[in-house]
Design goal:
The complex is a heterodimer of chains A (338) and B (348). Chain A has 338 residues and is an all-alpha fold. Chain A has one domain: ABC transporter involved in vitamin B12 uptake, BtuC (Orthogonal Bundle). Chain A is built from 13 helices and 2 strands; from the N terminus they run ααααααβααααβααα. In chain A, strands 1-2 form a two-stranded antiparallel sheet. Chain A starts with a helix and ends with a helix. The mean pLDDT of chain A is 87. Chain B has 348 residues and is α/β, with parallel strands linked by helices. Chain B has 2 domains: 131 residues, Rossmann fold (3-Layer(aba) Sandwich); 161 residues, Rossmann fold (3-Layer(aba) Sandwich), CATH 3.40.50. Chain B has 12 helices and 12 strands. The termini of chain B are far apart. The chains are: A mainly alpha (338), B alpha/beta (348). The interface between A and B is large, with 56 and 57 residues.
């Protein structure tokens, strides 16, 4: 009996070490249920899940890159470019008169734009040997400019409205609130399967831990890096569909301020910025925690500048707790080895 | 083993959910509606009216004053303000308004980041039966908020240039202008640009535009663009700005080329501005600025609050757009018009 309890304790400790934000999220969620007025209403919980959905998709894409020790700044410009191009196709192009056709074409184009930007990033990192920081910063700047140029050519208004009503279902409008949540869950499940149960996932972790050792072991490092860049771009393209549908316009400022929140979700979740440790399970809890924070602070009527301070402090705390738990685990392992 | 842990976590979360359930859900998935019956069943002591205030940002003095006026006015009426700030993110603003709806506020006053992206929030407010008022930035199209209190940006921008052109003709001067443009996601910026274009077109004998500088309402972007424009056009002799918010980069750029001087001094460089905030009006008083189209931060804030209460009481506005015609203040009519501007009492 004692052994069983000890096993449970060890398993729980391991789970909390692997996902350092999990115990904090559980406590915060419980506290929100008890102390925050209007938190536990179907309307608010629905909003909570909807607000998490597109962030989760982009964060999963970035997780692949961060696991490799890299970063992808271009996701925000992918969001923006996808939004304005997709909106143009659905509202102003010759096929706009056929709503369902234009929605299908627009969705495909938005995803392909993400793939294209991912390919450019992948080429820059693998063939031109640019650090991902520089390569993706360059594409972020370039494609943000392209998005604004495109929008200015097709309209003299600040955003592109007049999208077909059926498209808004992808943003959770009306009775279709489950749709973006389902899409984000499916994307997350695919990402989890990819990392946990495929050769690709194992290779990705190997490259993230030590690319030289991975190369010597026969892992096609460049192919792995190129693939994760494409995946990150593609995921941003998918998120662009959901975000555009939620806002019901194509807007050039769509991804502007999102990057910090997205990377915070990944880091707070417990994925190490140096690569090789973490995963989309960590990212899921990171996304839920950050969204919970924003939601509850707004519901409590906390002043907006206090929210910013608290967000920063809590992100620091979460990152420190992850570091402390990880160190504790390493010391335990060393003691056990001795 | 891991399955067991997962189940334990699910149980803990569920317990927390049930523990926190103080409100019967009754299977609703739509926004919480504001029924008259619910109000009638409330406690005998009247609950204060809750006004949600959603602003894009507080990046300019005008916005700071406007926001402060709204908060003061609501509190003076015994109401409660729940204020949220989108920090320039349209998606975040929509999410914050969803949170305000979840808090069952009685009305929402909104200064939108993007006039098209806010439509989705307007629809949600309408579904929830919560009146929403646009403050200073308007929305156009099929879905409109209950009321929109806006400055007549285009007309005011045209009028201030027409007034400047009259002064210029009396002095027999012509001007090569650098035209600053605000953030194109902001309808105000778009209308002011249209108004400036119209004012320039109305007075071709006075104005020639030598450069247009998009600023995206960013001081750093404005500074760099203006420095480059002054460098490329050394014969430029007028700056037209769509907001007093952009005075810091204007002053910095002119000081850099030794052209920060008052009217009458050799190094004076004329500027015409918009907003009527303390900085622009002070420069107008001191002789650095020639004209300012002043939108009234007080009046617009008070009108928004007034209409929030009237809409809560069930009143219908006579029209959707309620204009603040503002004041056009120039060096020629300073004594007459300046005291009417909201920032006049703040001037040194």
């Amino acid at each position: 009996m004692k052994n069983k309890i000890q096993k449970y304790r060890n398993s729980l400790a391991n789970e909390f070490t692997d996902n350092p934000i999990l115990p904090i999220f559980i406590l915060a969620f419980a506290a929100a249920c008890i102390f925050v007025p209007n938190f536990v209403s179907l309307y608010n919980l629905k909003n909570f899940l909807l607000q998490s959905s597109d962030v989760l998709i982009i964060a999963c894409g970035i997780t692949f890159v961060v696991l490799n020790g890299g970063i992808d700044f271009s996701v925000t410009s992918t969001l923006t470019l996808g939004s304005v191009v997709g909106a143009y196709i659905m509202a102003m192009s010759p096929i706009a008169v056929y709503p369902y056709l234009s929605i299908i074409v627009a969705n495909i184009v938005m995803i392909l734009l993400g793939v294209m930007i991912g390919c450019i990033n992948g080429f820059a990192v693998t063939k031109l040997k640019m650090p991902s920081f520089i390569a993706t910063l360059a594409t972020q700047l370039a494609f943000s400019g392209v998005a604004i140029l495109f929008a200015s050519l097709v309209t003299d208004k600040p955003s592109i409205a007049g999208l077909p009503e059926p498209f808004f279902a992808l943003g959770g409008s009306g009775k279709f609130f489950f749709l973006p949540i389902t899409i984000s869950v499916l994307v997350w499940l695919f990402s989890f399967w990819l990392l946990r149960y495929t050769n690709f996932g194992r290779r990705l972790y190997a490259v993230g831990i030590n690319p030289k050792t991975a190369y010597i072991s026969g892992v096609p490092v460049k192919k792995v890096i190129f693939t994760i860049m494409v995946l990150s771009g593609m995921y941003a393209g998918i998120a662009s569909i959901l975000a555009t549908a939620r806002n019901q316009v194509g807007v050039t400022s769509l991804g502007d301020k999102m990057f910090i929140s997205i990377i915070a979700c990944v880091i707070v979740g417990g994925t190490k910025i140096s690569g090789g440790f973490g995963g989309v399970k960590n990212t899921l809890f990171g996304v839920l925690f950050i969204t919970l924070l924003n939601n509850t602070m707004n519901l409590l009527g906390v002043e907006w500048y206090v929210i910013m301070i608290e967000q920063g402090m809590l992100i620091l705390l979460a990152a420190m707790s992850g570091y402390w738990l990880s160190n504790r685990q390493n010391k335990r392992m060393l003691r056990a080895a001795k | 083993m891991k399955k067991t842990i997962v189940w334990m976590l699910i149980v803990v979360l569920s317990l927390a959910l049930f523990a926190g359930c103080g409100q019967p859900a009754e299977g609703e998935t739509a926004a919480p509606a504001k029924a008259e019956e619910t109000k009638a069943e409330a406690a005998p002591a009247e609950e204060p009216i809750k006004i949600g205030v959603s602003f894009d940002s507080l990046e300019s003095q005008w916005l700071v004053k406007n926001h402060a006026v709204i908060v003061e006015e609501v509190e003076a009426r015994g109401g409660e303000v729940i204020s949220v700030m989108a920090e320039g993110d349209a998606t975040k603003q929509n999410q914050q308004i969803e949170n305000l709806i979840a808090q069952q506020v009685d009305a929402i006053i909104c200064f939108p980041k993007d006039s098209a992206a806010i439509v989705t929030s307007i629809k949600k407010c309408q579904e929830a039966g919560i009146p929403i008022i646009m403050d200073n930035r308007s929305v156009s199209g099929d879905v409109l908020p209950d009321v929109q209190v806006v400055a007549n940006n285009k007309a005011m921008a045209t009028k201030v240039l027409d007034a400047f052109a009259e002064i210029a003709r009396e002095e027999g001067k012509t001007y090569k202008a650098i035209l600053l443009i605000g953030g194109l996601a902001d309808e105000n910026a778009v209308y002011r640009k249209q108004g400036h274009d119209e004012g320039i077109a109305n007075n071709p004998d006075v104005f020639e535009v030598v450069a247009e500088v998009p600023t995206d309402w960013n001081l750093d972007t404005a500074l760099k663009g203006l420095q480059n424009a002054l460098q490329a056009n050394p014969d430029a002799n007028l700056i037209i700005t769509p907001s007093d918010y952009l005075w810091p980069p204007i002053r910095s750029s002119l000081e850099q080329i030794g052209r920060w001087g008052k009217i009458g001094e050799d190094n004076h460089f004329p500027v015409v501005s918009f907003d009527g905030d303390e900085v622009g009006m002070q420069y107008l008083k001191d002789g650095y600025n020639w004209g300012d189209a002043a939108q009234d931060a007080y009046a617009e804030g008070e009108m928004c609050v007034d209409w929030a209460y009237r809409l809560i009481a069930g009143e219908t506005p006579p029209q959707n757009l309620i204009y603040d015609e503002g004041q056009i203040v120039t060096i020629a009519n300073w004594d007459e018009m300046a005291p009417q501007v909201w920032s006049y009492d703040l001037l040194k």
